[in-house]
Amino acid sequence: xxxxxxxxxxxxxxxxxxxxxxxxxxxxxxxxxxxxxxxxxxxxxxxxxxxxxxxxxxxxxxxxxxxxxxxxxxxxxxxxxxxxxxxxxxxxxxxxxx
Length: 98
Fold this sequence. Notes:
Oligomer: single chain
Number of helices: 5
Helix content: 40-55%
Mean pLDDT: 93
Number of strands: 2
């Protein structure tokens, strides 16, 4: 999934105008690993919040997935304008519900 940003950003002295998120080839095994990593990262203890159906609509999880499947850290995505942040977020969420 290639996300074209509405403007060019400079992050860590590199200009970025698009982000490639390698979600199209994501396997179920890789997704399960991402879920386990995120649960640990976010310190989630409630089993209801670990459900993939719940996580796919969790903004932080979707940005975690975008970061994990691209060459950009979470801080990059968090520094985007709201317009571009939502573009990334909607792209990930749309993938999960398709």
